[in-house]
Design a protein that fits this description.
By secondary structure, the protein is of the alpha/beta class. Helices cover about 40% and strands about 15% of the residues. Strands 1-2-3-4-5-6-7-8 form an eight-stranded parallel β-barrel, surrounded by five helices. α1 links the parallel β1 and β2. α7 packs parallel to α8 and α9 packs parallel to α10. About 40% of the residues are buried. The protein binds 2-phosphoglycolic acid (PGA). The site of 2-phosphoglycolic acid has 13 residues, from β8.
């Protein structure tokens, strides 16, 4: 099973129009598509989609580390589950930038699993760390802090490798780098958690870059920002995962 996640971020988008232009007929059932719209649209999309696109799932772009209580402005994983979401992005670099620390992210991972949401944990180095050759150190640090505190590994977890310099830059990472990183993540997970987790890639994935990136060993899907706003482009990315 491959995974293709659309991260619509805080973009204005007419969902009905998007859906009309999203031709999913040729997309294999072996590709799990998950759309992550803004919180306000999740309920509507969860109600609309099953009528036409039964196989597409809906995710949130974040969730609270708490399940219930006096947390003004926060959205609970249990609320998301209740309205039909099945996934949540956790620890996206754009959320980390706003002050989410590693401990909070680990708590969000636990909360997501407790609420029966599949967390999509985003990790990745920045440009400076990449240039200094400290990619491995950074990823191991994030995996140790964000993944090892998970108390119950029984649910699904996706790990999205998203190097910060590749996000929104128009330039995806090199295949060789991605291959090394996917191996590093898989080995870390095997050695420390005695299990296998799905690793996907995010950062300027387009229908063009996807053709090569989809061939990288150990990469089983994409997390797509900009290019997912265009339904035709997004469908073409899905097709590249089938090759
Ligand atoms: P991008 O974003 O595809 O626009 O680079 C990816 C992401 O931020 O998840």
């Amino acid at each position: 099973m491959k995974h293709l996640i659309a991260n619509w971020k805080m973009n204005f988008l007419n969902f009905d129009e998007w859906l009309k232009d999203f031709d999913h007929n040729n997309i294999s059932e072996e590709i799990q598509i998950v759309i992550c719209p803004n919180y306000l649209e999740i309920k509507y999309i969860c109600k609309t989609l099953p009528k036409t696109h039964k196989k597409i799932l809906i995710g949130a772009q974040n969730l609270s580390s708490e399940i219930e209580g006096p947390f003004t402005g926060q959205i609970s994983g249990r609320m998301l589950r209740k309205i039909g979401a099945s996934h949540s992005i956790v620890g996206h670099s754009e959320s980390r930038l706003l002050g989410e620390d590693d401990e909070t992210i680990a708590n969000k991972m636990n909360t997501a699993l407790e609420c029966e949401l599949t967390p999509i944990l985003c990790i990745g180095e920045n440009q400076e760390e990449y240039s200094k050759g400290s990619t491995e150190k950074k990823l191991k640090h994030q995996l140790t802090e964000n993944l090892l505190p998970i108390q119950n590994l029984s649910g699904n977890i996706l790990i999205a490798y998203e190097p910060i310099y590749a996000i929104g830059s128009g330039i995806a990472v090199q295949k060789e780098h991605l291959k090394e990183v996917s191996l590093l993540i898989k080995n870390f997970v095997r050695d420390n958690l005695a299990t296998d987790l799905t690793v996907i890639y995010g950062g300027s994935v387009t229908s063009e870059s996807a053709i090569d990136l989809a061939k990288v060993d150990g990469i089983d899907g994409f997390l797509v920002g900009n290019a997912s706003l265009d339904p035709k482009e997004f469908a073409n990315i899905a097709l590249s995962l089938e090759r």
